[in-house]
Amino acid sequence: MKLKGNLINGLSLITIQGANALFPLLVFPFLLSVLGEGAFAELVVAESLALYVLTVSLYSFDTSGVQYIIEARKGGKLAKEADFFMNILAARIVLFLVSSLLLATLFGIFSDSSLNVLLAWLGFALGTVLQSNYYFQAIENNYELAFFILLSRFCGVLAAYLFINSPDDLLRASAILSGSFLVSGLAVLVVAINRFGLDSWRLVSTKKIVSLLRNGRHLFLGNISVLLFRNTNILILAGVSSSTSVSTYALAEKIIKSIQALARPLNQLFMPKAVKGWSAQPVDKRTSITALALIWKNTRTQVYLLLAVLPAIVLSIYVGHALGFLPGFSDDVIALVTLMAPSVIFGAANAMFGVVGLSLIGAQSYFSAVVFIVGVATFLYSLIASYAFSAYGAATAYIFAEVLLLILFIWKYHRNTTRGHFSS
């Protein structure tokens, strides 16, 4: 029975990430060919800005929330589980409202682009917040989440092909893409409320929200810093290069992030196992070296699989482009994808050794500091490289950051003997 449950959960995770990965692969090349480089560049810039709101809104709960829910379920009390879920959701909604208002105000003052396009993309951030993926990951039951995401993404792709025909459809395109996430988020929220009951909103407490935000501040600062090298390249290119470079790089980055999304179920599958493995360790065994061995045990399979599969994926994209099956692709896009592909492997390892592992050994401050320093350094490097080499410079900055982060994360384990905070 447990084997069947793990299989269904694993397939659900693959379905979720597969839908999220195929969605941009099917839609964005089509949009580039229909909207043209100018409108497409405006669309991806608005999306990049919405990702800042999303990062602020998610806070650090995609990691800490998993740990909270796992600990709550140990006692078998649904009320404690609901308490964490509702207060995390409330905290995220507050963060979404505040950050959205700030971004929209600044955008309206300083940008000549359409504010409506940005507002449409904020639905993407809200939908992702409402999905509460971390919760279903923690309870290792992602079936319902997978169903709604697959259905909404399919409808989004279909709507894009049916209703987007020219550059004049920029706002409609943004609404369709964003709406796909908003619909799945609302549907999953209904599932969660049905599980906990409508009166579970009464569990929301300002004191609890503040406590959750305070406890997750280190990981949050790290997540914000990640944006300096994972989400600013498009904005930098928009400032120092042409719309052609922005469009070319944005499409290549979408492909890489889609591949990362396909690989993410591996992280999601092994992350709870690493946390549970740490909780099962005797207190006197919870050292950084033990954590390093535990994280590597739950990371090596991911690395080996990606080393085997990644070249085949890149080759398939090249063949599809060469045979004319991939509209919107160019030789430059394929070259950028090939250049950036190793970042998928380093990114998967960073998620385990950084976000998960450093939390276990109580090195959240180190995590935040390292990610911030690497983020700033990469931002400056990307600024110079993008100005000098356009899209190719931005691509080298993308992979440089991932490699440097992994080196600094692993170095910490060898010099740190602090016991983890999550020891209960």
Automatic annotation (TrEMBL):
Coarse class of the protein's main subcellular location: membrane
Compartments where located: Cell membrane
Top-rank taxon, per record: Bacteria
Keywords carried by this UniProt record: Cell membrane, Membrane, Transmembrane, Transmembrane helix
The UniProt record lists the keyword Transmembrane helix: yes
Transmembrane segments: 7-32, 38-61, 82-109, 115-136, 143-164, 170-193, 303-321, 333-358, 365-384, 390-411
Membrane topology listed for this record: Multi-pass membrane protein
Protein name: Oligosaccharide flippase family protein
Organism: Aromatoleum buckelii
